[in-house]
Amino acid sequence: MISRIWHGWTTHENADIYEALLREEIFTGIQNRHILGYKGIQLLRREVGEEIEFITIMTFDSLESVAEFAGSDYEQAVVPEKARAVLSHFDQRSQHYEIIVNRESEG
After folding, report:
1. Which percentage of the chain shows pLDDT scores above 70?
2. Cα–Cα distances in angstroms (integers) from residue 104 to residues 53, 101, 107, in the given order
3. Closest CA to 96 of 64, 50, 53
4. Is 12 helix (H, G, I), strand (E, B) or coil?
5. Is there a contact between 5 and 94 (Cβ–Cβ < 8 Å)?
6. What is the rounded average pLDDT of the residues 35-57?
7. Domains of the chain, CATH where assigned
8. pLDDT tier at 102 (50, 70, 90 boundaries)?
9. Contact, 88 vs 11, CB < 8 A?
10. Exposed / middle / buried, residue 60 (Cβ in 10 Å: 0-12, 13-18, 19+)
11. CA–CA separation, 96 and 102 (whole Å)
């Protein structure tokens, strides 16, 4: 399993707009692509001084599945124009990690 991690930052004024865009349009669009090996996405949010940082963590079966999502240069960030319009700055490239352990709580 592979985790694809990406960071984006926006202003306090645009944070809720960006989050809604992710939830209502971008994540739905990814799901509707029916990418073989795509397992899901997590969204993290935190305040960092004058900005709000967002992190997305996508999970895939393999790097081949990541490439189906992102293209042959699979580390390249996939940031739609609507998202670029409200982000202050963002990672140009995503990081990919092999998931070694994925243990969930038994409680």
Report:
1. 99
2. 26, 10, 9
3. 64
4. helix
5. yes
6. 97
7. 2-74 (3.30.70.100)
8. confident
9. yes
10. buried
11. 16
